[in-house]
């Protein structure tokens, strides 16, 4: 059996891991693909390998904002582990790549047959809930520059690369701020030698410095994941 790239699947007992991988299929997810809208019925769950997904909220006709991010460390479709089929948030592929996709019915069957799998995935639900709460407080209380630094670190963690493509417009949309705010914050990070930003291409030059510039929310998220899922 091939080694699982996804951290949650890798933690499972080999029998459970084999059952999930046999029930699913490897798919390539393109940038900008919408994987779910609030209120939709969940048809599939996704375990990212090298792609990552933004979780976005916002009412009809209102500005939207990213409240969570899912990469190789997690899964999309955690609501099924709670027995809920409705999609809670807009899910958008932010970084293209591969994922294991499993239809809802076989996933729920595999989950019901394994208390050990239920424990691993329920712990991740807690991590995701914590990330959502942290994002809400971060948006309300922290300035744009440390929030941008946090967001770039989260993206780098899931992109598994020092370089990625992000426009000012997209960053403003994800952070829920005006584009001029992103321009100013990115300019400061670049002048401080932490990143290089040109025509939407971002390269992290100083990871340690970027962590120091980020708000405490980034470290909080990491500690929660390590302590809960590990």
UniProtKB/TrEMBL annotation:
<dbReference type="InterPro" id="IPR018490">
    <property type="entry name" value="cNMP-bd_dom_sf"/>
</dbReference>
<dbReference type="InterPro" id="IPR012318">
    <property type="entry name" value="HTH_CRP"/>
</dbReference>
<dbReference type="Pfam" id="PF13545">
    <property type="entry name" value="HTH_Crp_2"/>
</dbReference>
<dbReference type="InterPro" id="IPR036390">
    <property type="entry name" value="WH_DNA-bd_sf"/>
</dbReference>
<dbReference type="InterPro" id="IPR050397">
    <property type="entry name" value="Env_Response_Regulators"/>
</dbReference>
<keyword id="KW-0805">Transcription regulation</keyword>
<keyword id="KW-0238">DNA-binding</keyword>
<dbReference type="InterPro" id="IPR014710">
    <property type="entry name" value="RmlC-like_jellyroll"/>
</dbReference>
<feature type="domain" description="HTH crp-type">
    <location>
        <begin position="147"/>
        <end position="212"/>
    </location>
</feature>
<protein>
    <submittedName>
        <fullName>Crp/Fnr family transcriptional regulator</fullName>
    </submittedName>
</protein>
<keyword id="KW-0804">Transcription</keyword>
